[in-house]
Design goal:
Helix content: 25-40%
Bound molecules: pyridoxal-5'-phosphate
Order of helices and strands: HEEEHHEHEHHEHEHEHEEHHHEEHHEEH
Strand content: 5-15%
Strand order of the largest sheet: 4-10-9-8-7-5-6
Amino acid sequence: MNKNKELFEQSEVFIPGGVNSPVRAFGSVGGTPIFFKAGMGSRLIDENDKEYIDYINSWGPMIVGHANPEIINAVKKTAEFSLSFGAPTSRELTMAELLVKLVPSIEQVRLVSSGTEATMSAIRVARGYTKRDKILKFEGCYHGHADSLLVKAGSGALTFGQPSSAGVPADTAKHTHTLEYNNVTALEECFKKMGHELACVIIEPVVGNMNLIIPKMPFLNKLRELCTKYDTVLIFDEVMTGFRVALGGAQSLFDIKPDMTTLGKVIGGGLPVGAFGGKKEIMQQLAPLGPVYQAGTLSGNPVAVSAGMKTLELIQKPDFFENLTKNTKSLVDGLIEAAKINNVEFSAQSVGGMFGFYFSAHPPESFGEVMVSDRDKFNKFFHLMLDQGIYFGPSAFEAGFVSSAHSMDDINQTIKAAEISFKKLK
Ligand SMILES: *Cc1c(COP(=O)(O)O)cnc(C)c1O
């Protein structure tokens, strides 16, 4: 009896598509989604009691692995003193201070409950601050599912062939302009035409939502230069990359200071926490100080913040990111080698604890290049790996994640499984 299949069929009766977030449905790769009942470190157990090495990490948050005892204890201890107050707590202050310390471009920060809320609110502040309506984003970047950001918006939407969602009024979408990622010429032309009308540019400083794409430095530098020149707010959406590619986020790796930053995923350690912050001058536009409204019943929730704080504490240990980066790189190198032995056209790369692999000769640099990689091969590879207990993202458009709980044994086991899979793919 396949319990996953049974549960999925029942779920489809009560939940649209059987899932609470589309990419979980295996729509892209085919087959039945896995229902998990437990996780420990790098491992997950499904409803059939099958064990997997997890390279999704709940899409990023589980950077120290599942059921980390210190995080679980922090959550339990906090929960005993009530789950929510709807009033300020000292914990929120501690977290805000830490975020400001670790991400120097953030002078003030507000906590919310998801990445979507963070980006949506950051855009509203940027618009209020500049008194402009237009925003600029890049093809294939995902910034949550707020209306104005669901235009050419990456993985989940890509997987389902909906680059723009139904239900977003044309009147809203018309303020969102999109350009090709890594294209300096297009960027310059756009600013020349409408720079003075752009409230903000929002960008994933390493893209993790059309598989993994690394920015070119001249592109990022030009973006910073143009935003400064035209008084356009530069928003780094570090919901995925923040505390994942480095302790100071992608902005510390590339040494670029955005005006605003959005955070999520890792800062909640598996519970719902998001944050947006940046220059004090911009953040002080927010109510109750300024005219831009933003609020949340559960914002800064004590239990969620305690999980996040403990996670942030653990990742500040010496060499945490050095080791994570090294292990992720050895996974990527091993996969490349395994493909090469078997003559499979394949490439892969990583940044910190994030990686991407592609059934194409070179890593892509833009949305267009991601689209031409061999999806059919990816889907076959995905299932061959899943059968062997290796859980990658169920779509060719998702990045992968390694945690500090992944041992070299885990990684070697994964590479061995990949050798077998590549052999079968030929
Ligand atoms: C995941 C993600 C979001 C959305 O966060 P949610 O918590 O899912 O709402 C926004 N931006 C980026 C870059 C993300 O990876």
